[in-house]
Amino acid sequence: MDLAAIVDNWRTLSALAAPAQCAAVVKADAYGLGIAEVAPALWRAGALTFFVAHLNEGLRLRALLPDAVIYVLNGLMPGTAPDLVAARLRPALGSVPEISEWSAFCRAAGESHAAAIHVDTGMERLGLSLDDAVRLSDSRRLLGFEPSLLMSHLACADTPGHPLTLRQLSIFTDVARRFPGVPASLANSAGTLLGRDFRFDLVRPGIFLYGGVAVSGVPPLRSVVRLDARILQVREVERGATVGYGAAQRMKRRSRIATVCVGYADGLFRAAGATDAKPGAEAIIAGRRCPLVGRISMDLASVDVTGLPDGAVERGAMATLLGEGIGVDDLAARSGTIGYEVLTSLGGRYLRRYVGG
């Protein structure tokens, strides 16, 4: 895990977004990379505002960063206002019941506690409807608190030219005008790359910080993760032999197969395996790309190293699944998924080393 790369990626986006503030999304244990290491590195780099998904993530982050501004994206669960306030966490309020409960708590305490207002502009997931947002703006003076942020979330910003993206921008711009003086935030990683109109007062990058692709066709920033696994055995298999469970792939030549100590229990998806009908992912061994063969099992994967020189592969050597030109989105594409899932699925059996930052 290269913390210096994460910091450099954040600084690149911060410079791009200026004069908007650049926050950092560190939900899901900083996209699987370790919030205890990632968040302090970003704070030292100058990030002041962070986003998590759940209350417990916010509590953990507050213990790490006593002075950071922390928003809880999944909002206000019933009865949790005292816990949020005690930890100085700011919920993203996305429904009338949430706003009513937060407002009532603030009035009862005689104090205004910061919270975001989340408006749905087309995601159809979380957030106030447009009608509710308009009604709230008309009665804002009756709230028991002053909103600290107005936010929405882009559904298709990673797809260039998608019509929903411009429609969401138009809707959010109109809503933001109804909340004068309240900072506004629409852009995720992809939205940050779409231009100044999307950035408003604060951007909320996630995947781009961690070396993933944010917009189709736009290269990622610095790679963050390198994933190596030990080779347990190298064996010869005859032409026509099948490799792995289900006999899914039959060898077309006499081959050398390296068995690698990594499997789907470690987050290497079964779909990254190969069959007679489709190629799988690749690993870099002895400096060359080699194809995975057969199914991925719980703890093991097989790699065809026939093309390497004799003696180039030995028991105990490393196979690289991420790094040396294989990015998270490369592995994701061979697994039928997205880079986000690759990162957040990295298992607990790895020895994790953090460098830089």
TrEMBL record:
EC number: 5.1.1.1
UniProt GO molecular function: alanine racemase activity; pyridoxal phosphate binding
UniProt domain Alanine racemase C-terminal: residue ranges: 224-355
Gene Ontology biological process terms in this record: D-alanine biosynthetic process
NCBIfam families the record matches: alr
Record family assignment: Belongs to the alanine racemase family.
Name of the protein described by the UniProt record: Alanine racemase
Organism: Xanthobacter tagetidis
